[in-house]
Amino acid sequence: MTRHPTYVILMGPPASGKGTQADRLQEGLALPHVASGDLFRYNLKNQTPLGLEAKGYMDRGELVPDGLTIAMVLDRLARPDCANGALLDGFPRTLAQAEALDQALADQGYGINLVLDVQVPRDELISRVTGRRLCRACGASYHIKFAPPAVDGVCDKCGGELYQRDDDTEATAGKRLEVYDAQTKPLIEYYRNKGLLAGIDGNQPIDAVTAALKEAIEQNL
Ligand code: AP5
Ligand code: MG
Ligand code: ZN
Question: Is residue 215 part of a domain?
């Protein structure tokens, strides 16, 4: 029996918890976690031309141009492990990206099933950004206060080294929030008008946000 592929989008401002929650949701959904920011960081780690080009934009807190971003994500979605769909995190982030995704899925007779919009107030976002630490090996996300690892600087999951992202300074985070308000926030209306949007209160402990997301998925998928 074949199942219609399922596409779920996790939306929300920088540091709202998209990556943290995607890790917790992907198993239950049986969908791979496709995060545009992680794909750019992976390309940068491997010094690919795409990664090197993206770096300047990321360090300034700006969006990478649509053409590059759309090609990268659609290429990822065409891989075999996405045959049943994907849990998208950080993409789409502009109207052009949303339209390109709609078109690419429509060409195959598919569409987006659900958009989960995780909302968190600005002050809380800044403290989440500046305290974040990531695993160099597996990408797992920690926070020095809100989600500390068992051993300082070491990943609980794989023992990898924890590091701070270059764009996780207070100044760059402020710029990323501005960019979010100007370019990504309009997508909330775009998906609301399509009847796909579920709003989630992201200003709660991590487990409570996971529970709210799971409930929205159960009700809407
Ligand atoms: P990207 O990597 O997507 O960054 P972002 O959107 O700024 O989002 P973050 O990854 O910062 O936050 P998150 O929501 O995943 O939060 P997390 O779970 O880690 O993009 C980076 C850059 O790449 C962009 O600036 C741009 O240049 C480029 N880019 C990416 N996609 C693009 C696109 N589509 N188009 C163009 N350019 C693109 O959590 C954050 C912290 O808070 C962690 O420390 C975590 O432990 C903690 N935390 C999480 N939840 C909670 C909670 N409930 N309570 C307390 N702490 C919590
Ligand atoms: Mg993330
Ligand atoms: Zn790890």
Answer: yes
Measured by CA distance, the residue closest to atom 55 of ligand 1 is: 146
Q: Which atom of ligand 1 is nearest to the CA of 203?
A: 53
Owning domain of residue 103: 6-220
Instruction: From the candidates 41, 128, 132, 133, give the one annotated as an active-site residue.
Output: 132
Residue 204 sits in a domain whose CATH number is 3.40.50.300
Look at ligand 1, atom 34, and give the residue with the nearest C-alpha: 91
What are the structure tokens assigned to 181, written together?
């308000």
pTM of the model: 0.96
144 within some domain: yes
Distance, in Å, from the CA atom of 173 to the CA atom of 95, rounded to the nearest integer, reads 22
For a mutational test of ligand 1's pocket, the pick from 21, 39, 40, i.e. the residue with the most ligand atoms closer than 8 A to its C-beta, is 40
Examine residue 204 and state whether it is found in any structural domain, yes or no. Answer: yes
Active site residue: 55, 93, 128, 133, which one? 93
Domain-located, residue 1: no
User: One digit per residue, pLDDT tens: the chain, 221 residues?
Assistant: 456 899 999 999 999 999 999 999 988 999 999 999 999 999 999 999 999 999 999 999 999 999 999 999 999 999 999 999 999 999 999 999 999 999 999 999 999 999 999 999 999 999 999 999 999 999 899 999 999 999 999 999 999 999 999 999 999 999 999 999 999 999 999 999 999 999 999 999 999 999 999 999 999 99
User: Has 93 been annotated as catalytic?
Assistant: yes
The number of distinct structural domains making up the chain is 1
